[in-house]
Amino acid sequence: MTDDQIWTPLRQELDRWRAAGCQARFWLRDDDATEPTDALETLLEVTRRACLPLTIAVIPASTGEALATRLSGEGHILVAVHGWSHANHAGPDEKKQELGRHRSADVVLGQLHDGLVALQGLYGPRLVPMLVPPWNRISEALVPQLGARDFKALSIFGRAEAGGPIRLLNTHVDVVNSRKQRGNRPHGDLVADLVAQLQARFAKDDEPVGILTHHLVHGASEWEFLTRLFQETGHHPGAAWMSARDLLG
């Protein structure tokens, strides 16, 4: 199968949205930023060239003025709170978690609030008061308490359920990770994931499709996929890339 054939199903699905007078909404979240790196420069260049908005989840305990200064001139960038330190507090037989039940809620929520305040000081209006839990995992008991710590939204992975205690702006297609593979995911598999997400939303427009990236571990395959994805969707009348702030209203 040629590279062009790999992208045909996405093109056809977006054509279906256009024919129905609809636009599929997309948004982009990148995780684990702490400082300027060559990988970050590539991410900024790819998104800037495509003229699309990007939300970067920054780890408060590990960041500082250097990253804030580098991002200050990038008008297409917003920042979200990526936990506190991205430290794993789960046991060896559990999935990694920073925001689980392994510590007291007061300690965890206090650190999250400190992280929000720290990033507000660094980024001002560029910060979206949205929590991105490390590894996309958070104890259900903590979620209803986030609002009292000044968070307005939560972003994890998977379809969002309506009627929760806080707004959800989730991601759904992970460019790097799947249950079967870590890195170098076949582009055909990623396109199939995108098409499945769009088909589940057709004529409903109930939830934007969130694309999740991890710039620090991208190889050539991930950068090639993103570049082509932005080309295929950036000017298609059946697609619209939106910022987290616009989506949260």
From TrEMBL:
Protein name, per record: Polysaccharide deacetylase
The UniProt record lists the keyword Transport: no
Alphabetical keyword list: Plasmid
Q: Does the keyword Ubl conjugation apply?
A: no
Record-level GO BP terms? carbohydrate metabolic process
